[in-house]
Amino acid sequence: MDALDGVPRSVLGYPVKTRTQIVATFLVPVIFELMLYIVLTTADILITVEHFRNGAQTWAWFTLTLIWLPAVVCFCSIVSTPERWPERIGFDERTGRFLFNQVAILVFFPLAALYRFSRRIFWSVEALFHDKGSYGRAQAVAKITETSPCELYHFLQAFLQAAPQMMLQLYILLRDGTFRNYDTVTVQVISVVCSFLTMATIITGYQRFESQKIVGRCYPWSTPEQATQRRKQLLRSTSTAVSALATPSIAPEADPIVPNIMRNFYSRYGSEGERESTANERVAVPTAEQSPRKTLNVGAFNFDRQQSKAHQDPYVNFTDDDKLQEFSGPPDTVDRGGSKARPSGRSVSFKLRDTVEELEAMDHYLRSAEDVRGYATDDSDDEYLKPDGFDAVPKRSAPPTPEAAAGMFHRVSVFRHMLLFNAEAFIKEKVPRLPEGMFDHANPREGSRKVPTQGSGDQTDGDAISLPSRRQTIVGLEQDDVVGKAVLFLGWVMFLLMRMLALSTFYVFFPLYFWMLVANHYLLMIACIVYEVRLHEKLERYFFYLFLAYMYVFSLLEFKIRFVHVRWWYVGYIALVLAENVASLVLWYNLGAFESWWFYFLHHTIVASGSLSVLCFLFYYAFLRPKDKVLFVNED
């Protein structure tokens, strides 16, 4: 497998070098995320200190709790996962070391996150100094893409720290009306801006995660064993379209007998160049003991049925007298040297002029060798390739010709069975809750009947027709290139800006209606999730679905559940959020009591950001969305 498998190989349809792939996919995004994390964490800590100094104890404790919340949830998730613990049951040295490491990461979570970002940056730079296909490049890329629990913390930070922190600080800024402390306001604005960018980064990276996961992408916080097992299982059970098209089922099958015949022939007589050199040596040094021997130039085309049928005998219209006149001549006219061979008969060139009897024996041999593939086996090649008497009549008689009627009915029977098999498979896949035993063809007298497949038909009867069969496919998505991610990132920044400003200002004027709006949206998202997973997902993940519905209050991403109707989900969600934002905007702008110019600015900002987000999404969907990635399921 390629070290950069899954990484976009082109930008706007133009192929890029591997170093450009590493810079655009790993190095630049990691540096951007590192800067965002440092600024966001520092700003939130400074806001907590400023709130304590200003006597706002409640806002200070809320801010401090939101800083620690992602780390605590990540710690609980890791500790409660049995796969992450050592295999040995009981408290031993490895178990104590694992628990100590997790507690240390919980206490010093900012340092653990910085170590993770720094490690990825180091290996990204290291990969640039190695050539394509080298071991150093593969090792560096493997270090970049290795899984870590810190990735789970970074994911939870967007929804458990950035989103509520953004809402809290915006509410504090809008509720005060007049900015009393310039230092506190500056830090709050920085925190809000970095929260927007952090959320947009995570949403862009996990936008269509499930569609990318089924074709190779793994969770970045899974264990190394889980990632390796997932990768091996995907390689073993699926194949790409390129490998599938390399051996098409409709193309003519290669004859398995021809390679064996030619391999034995060249092993006994050597290649064409060796035979010519040997013949020249024999002509140069003649001996009395050497007997005249006739040589045939036999190639792979002599055993090709299509070319043999297409070739016409040049002497087909000759009479016996014409053949005697053609091959009768003085002995001195016979070319005994290494001159160019003259083609005659069935694509066989003669270096010597043969007699009529030898021509008849040779023609009989060539006609019998035409059907050698019908009954010859691996151990019967020597019968036709003996050096002495090479042109002798085969000892084994030809097999009897099968009756035309039986072969015809056999091919029709195979065709009928294949059609029935494909129809039953299609009905079983598409029709739910079929009656039991509907396709049970077992006969109590004869037992269960085995439906012949394409492979079995080819093995039992060489004359049976071979029809292409349907192959099950897995359709996923490739990852976005750097331009697509940039446009999608900008669209989500504008969307979150519209959403957060609309909800915050609406809460300032109508807090009761705000909670009613959020509660109705939350319940609607839960209903949509349950409806989506009713057939192809387990319904035991109630707690996770509650958290997923909370994420859908701010944004929409395909995570942990795969959307069956993707367009309906995104179109419906964006239309619903736009309707909610417009309704709340109209209410507080017309019925709210405000005098500050700040709210007029927020009104225009909400309208402009909503329009820009819709334009970015439309442009991305029309021109920059990733292509579908198709994998074929390997049949057992």
TrEMBL record:
Signal peptide: none
Sorted UniProt keywords: Cell membrane, Membrane, Transmembrane, Transmembrane helix
Keyword Cell membrane: yes
Membrane topology category: Multi-pass membrane protein
Keyword Magnesium: no
Disordered as annotated region, ranges: 327-348, 377-402, 441-463
Cellular compartment(s): Cell membrane; Membrane
Family: Belongs to the XK family.
Protein name: XK-related protein
Gene source species: Anopheles melas
